[in-house]
């Protein structure tokens, strides 16, 4: 581009003067500058202001609690994992287990539920099927004799009933939480000792086999795969001020 | 001042948008099941197997196992004759008692006797036999042990065709109940 005597730019090929083009460029530049200034003003981090911060020099430690239950046989007992075989009407089989809270949070609302992997009359009939009773001892049961040996006041040798005789069919359909079972809760590190009794009612199972054939609806020769589940929830949530 | 108006006009929508986004995020968090402040649950389980007993006694003409449960055996009409049967336990527990039930159309049964071993060809029982009262509960030696068998000889004066079966009652439970501590 060349410049004329009057100082007006002239188009290099056409030779036309470019006064109008120059004015337009100035206007575009002005608009761009205004827009840039507006964007700069409206973006948050560019205010010309003083700032200050304060923070704790040592990081605050936050640890979540744990709620862990372990179920194990009481010493000397087979617990739940060994087979109960050939249970006949009137038989009572006691198993001794202990439930420990190995977590850091107290548990509350302890419940018990039973599941049968192959349901039969044993766990579906409330009248002919298995009946479950749970007693508790504040210390480990004396398994050999089935007694609760403790000096705790008000605790008989048979322990404290926490679940009155209940059909397994009931336990298989819903979790039970009688107050004496769920009420005490389970503090961290605490252990509860249970005697779980299984029986087949004799009054409703007076089945007479004829020439080796059991009558229809008999509980004879049935099998069950029982899963016992104790469950609890954390203690009530709290708000602390300190 | 035009610039100031422009500034306010831009910041207000930005603030509204941020508020909307924050509200939406909070809603999503609340709706997500895992994000609610639900009480911490814990559980412990143990599994074990259980089998119920069976108790049954079968009377059969078969002399050797297997002795399978089935219908009552047929007792043929005889005249001063004897018939021999095997009485075998088929259950897992020994019945508390059994009833030897003989039904005969028009017969007169003289006697029944149980032997611990098969009767001889001479009709004798080595070691002695035990009389069987038909139609009444009996126990003890008249109940075959689990997996075992006894041998029954039925003598009749005259008997029409009838049937013979053994009814087995549930196993005995110690009284008072002695729980199995396991």
From TrEMBL, chain A:
<feature type="region of interest" description="Disordered">
    <location>
        <begin position="1"/>
        <end position="23"/>
    </location>
</feature>
<protein>
    <submittedName>
        <fullName>TasA family protein</fullName>
    </submittedName>
</protein>
<feature type="compositionally biased region" description="Basic residues">
    <location>
        <begin position="14"/>
        <end position="23"/>
    </location>
</feature>
<dbReference type="Pfam" id="PF12389">
    <property type="entry name" value="Peptidase_M73"/>
</dbReference>
<dbReference type="InterPro" id="IPR022121">
    <property type="entry name" value="Peptidase_M73_camelysin"/>
</dbReference>
From TrEMBL, chain B:
<protein>
    <submittedName>
        <fullName>Uncharacterized protein</fullName>
    </submittedName>
</protein>
